[in-house]
């Protein structure tokens, strides 16, 4: 799913969906769940679709991926909190920790990108107010 065509998928069995004037990312996410997909992939999360995507990832599907712009792997979690806060006054850290297993942070280098960090998300400690993480790279 994407609002601008940029994903390239080599899989043989996939369905590409694009946001239109009459069909939002939230609409696509809602409809996709009815199709029982193996994976849910969103080109870039940058709006109020963040909560719908996290909810979709928490419904027992085998996984998914997306991109989020931030300045580090840990700040990606904060960015998701910020995006979710646009549509929910209830803090969603546990939802985020339950939906996101790994963050791969890429940094630009020259004309390409390199993997700067890989962070595993193991949960959220509500008492300490922090994500439980460990670096894989």
From TrEMBL:
Cross-referenced Gene3D superfamilies: P-loop containing nucleotide triphosphate hydrolases
Endpoints of the signal sequence: none
GO molecular function: ATP hydrolysis activity
Domain Bacterial type II secretion system protein E: 1-104
Pfam families in the cross-refs: T2SSE
Domain of life assignment: Bacteria
UniProt similarity note: Belongs to the GSP E family.
Protein name (database record): Type IV secretion system protein VirB11
Source organism of the structure: Selenomonas ruminantium
């Amino acid at each position: 799913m994407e609002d601008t065509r940029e994903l390239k998928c080599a899989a043989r069995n996939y369905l590409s969906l694009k946001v239109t004037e009459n069909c939002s990312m939230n609409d696509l996410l809602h409809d996709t769940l009815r199709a029982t997909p193996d994976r849910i992939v969103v080109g870039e999360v940058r709006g109020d679709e963040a909560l719908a995507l996290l909810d979709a990832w928490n419904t027992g599907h085998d996984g998914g991926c997306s991109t989020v712009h931030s300045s580090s792997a840990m700040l990606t979690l904060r960015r998701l909190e910020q995006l979710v806060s646009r549509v929910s006054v209830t803090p969603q850290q546990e939802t985020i920790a339950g939906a996101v297993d790994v963050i791969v942070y890429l940094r630009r280098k020259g004309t390409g990108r390199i993997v700067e960090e890989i962070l595993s998300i193991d949960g959220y400690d509500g008492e300490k107010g922090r994500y439980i993480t460990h670096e894989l790279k």
